[in-house]
Amino acid sequence: MMKKFLILFTSLLLLLILFILVRTFTFKSKQIDVAEQDFLEIPNSSIEHLQRAIQFKTISFDDPKLIDSVAFLDFHNFLKTAYPLTFLKLSSEKVNDLSLLLHWKGKDHTKQPIILMAHQDVVPIEVATLKKWHEEPFSGKIRGNYIYGRGAIDNKGSLIAILESVELLLAHGFTPASDIYFVFGHDEEVSGLRGAKAIAKLLKDRGIKPAMVLDEGGIITENKVPGLNKTAAVIGIAEKGYLTLDLRINIPGGHSSMPEHKTAIDQIAEAIVKLKDKPFPANLGTVIHHFMDYVGPEMSFVNKMAMANRWLFKPLIESTYSKSPAGNATIRTTTAFTIFNSGVKENLIPGEATATVNFRTPPETSKEDVINYVRKVINNDKIEIIARPNSAQPKQIADVGHPTFKHLQKTISAFKKDIVVAPYLMVGASDSRYFTDLTTQVFRFIPFTDIEGLHGVNERIKAEEFKNGVSFYYYFMKSYKE
Q1: Are the C-beta atoms of residues 52 and 78 closer than 8 Å to each other?
Q2: Do 57 and 187 reside in the same domain of the chain?
Q3: pLDDT in tens, 433-449
Q4: Separation of alpha carbons 157 and 216, rounded Å
Q5: Angle of helix 463-478 relative to helix 156-171, nearest 10 degrees?
Q6: Both 356 and 404 in a single domain?
Q7: What is d(CA 125, CA 118) in angstroms, rounded to the nearest whole number?
Q8: Which residues are catalytic, by number?
Q9: Are 140 and 147 in contact (CB under 8 A)?
């Protein structure tokens, strides 16, 4: 009996191993073989234009009264001076005074247009961090081949690279195959309500149905994809949702000499600890499976085997991705505690306490899913859960089989041999979410490598990286024929 069992067990084990190996060896690459493309000789004036662009303090604030509209208008005047052909040949209009919409008419008006996006505004500088900057944050100075300043990456680097490429194409006598719209919002950093959202509505009202939208998001990276030892370019085909909850409790307070067993602060703190100790479960959704389909075949054999057999190695994959902040954010709804309010006096036990928690959700997770999960985990009926109204739940997932994704993939692949181009889930929010009613083919990608200082200290971009970005946009528009 035991012998038969061992034979059966061994046979099943061998079949399992064979099945795993077959799936691994038939896990084929999704990369595209294209002829290598030389980078353009980009004039140094492009660097000077980016330096100058950084110097305009186009800062977004939550309080609209603090916005310096003159800085934005001066920036517009600079753009007209720096790119005379662009503003001569393309029609331009302002939306809500500070956002820009440019229209480049193509050869065939019956073809669907495309939209390229970037935003003019930047986040403020924390006064406490000023001394940590190597160069003044609005100087645009060059140090060690890097251009420093707020907006160098987010997002004036892309905006200026796009306009540099348009100016070059016009100088070379080029007319695009189809119409191209350029959307340069002015308030992306504060939700884009008067900028990109208003422009999206305007285009929808005009009956504009683009074939695709390209906005900021994914990057080129040398080291951010676990298990991949090649350069990767990740293209956002979807982005995570945004939900903020306030956890609030209101119970009798009292004198600090006679504290209750559990005060308001105790109970909110306990709720925070529970949520911290029990994060949302990992979810390898549609976008993550697309991502792994593209990167998996390019990995070493062991990693390739895991990616090819996710049904078996899912716990290992989830464990690996959970170890880094970026990886963890990719595979689950994230929980971030951002504000805690309670108390007014050192010897007075407060009766009210509030904690603010921000969640970023994958397309498959709804607002109700998050609230129900939080309620279950904290398990305290005394705590009120209040959803803030500024939530966003984008459900759009671009089709990676569509020609627009293939065009993006080809353009990127032409600049670097063996680069791995892959779709991914963007963990932040972008202005492009407002355009998903116009087209399902919304992509998030900027052609820069391992960006530094985003929203932080010493935001900067390598001068050569910026020039390479100009080449990307140039060929992206020049070769688009769909």
Answers
A1: yes
A2: yes
A3: 999 999 999 999 999 99
A4: 10
A5: 50
A6: no
A7: 20
A8: 121, 188
A9: yes
